[in-house]
Amino acid sequence: MGNDASRDATAQAAHPDFQLVQSSGEFRELRRSHRSFVFPLAGAFLLWYFLYVLLADYAHDFMSIKVAGNITLGLVLGLLQFVTTFGITAWYVHHANKKLDPAAEAIRSEIEHHDFDATARTASAGEETAR
């Protein structure tokens, strides 16, 4: 109908320019903060996990060392895998709550207030060329 075109134009004007968002300094800093935390931690955990798997597969005598009663070193290291997983999860949640979420919320707020609106950017560029 006749109203569909105006509704489409209004909906299209409200869409942010995500390339502009991704090229902003705030977004790059958020991505850097996330990656600098996640990648080293994930790499360290994978090394720890594969070390455990390799020890379990190739170091039977070492993993069979009795620590207390029938509890072996392999069992202790296996349980430490769970402890490590929960510890990393708690650490990431703390990091995200303290650093990532506030930065992401600020970017979201800018997007919702049309600071990254594609039509606003085009209009302001048109005003500058008209001067």
Structure description:
- Pfam families: DUF485.
- Keywords: Membrane, Transmembrane, Transmembrane helix.
- The chain has helices at residues 2-13, 18-22, 25-58, 60-63, 73-112, 118-130, and strands spanning 66-68, 71-72.
- By secondary structure, the protein is mainly α.
- The chain has one domain (25-130).
- Strands 1-2 form a two-stranded antiparallel ribbon.
- A hairpin with a 2-residue loop joins strand 1 (66-68) and strand 2.
What's this model, at a glance?
With 131 residues, this protein is mainly α. It contains 6 helices and 2 strands; from the N terminus they run H-H-H-H-E-E-H-H. Strand 1 and strand 2 form a beta hairpin.
Chain-wise SSE layout:
Layout: H1 2-13, H2 18-22, H3 25-58, H4 60-63, E1 66-68, E2 71-72, H5 73-112, H6 118-130
Helix pairs in contact: 3-5
- Taken together, the total number of domains comes to 1
- SSE sequence, one letter per element: HHHHEEHH
Question: Biggest sheet, open or closed, and with what strands and sense?
Answer: 2 strands, antiparallel
Binned strand content = under 5%
Low-pLDDT segments: none
The strands making up the biggest β-sheet line up spatially as: 1-2
Share of helix, binned: over 70%
Mean of all residue-level pLDDT scores? 84
Q: Write down the Rg.
A: 26 Å
> What general outline do the C-alpha atoms trace?
elongated
Keywords: Membrane, Transmembrane, Transmembrane helix
Organism: Sinomonas flava
InterPro entries: DUF485
Transmembrane segments: 37-55, 67-93
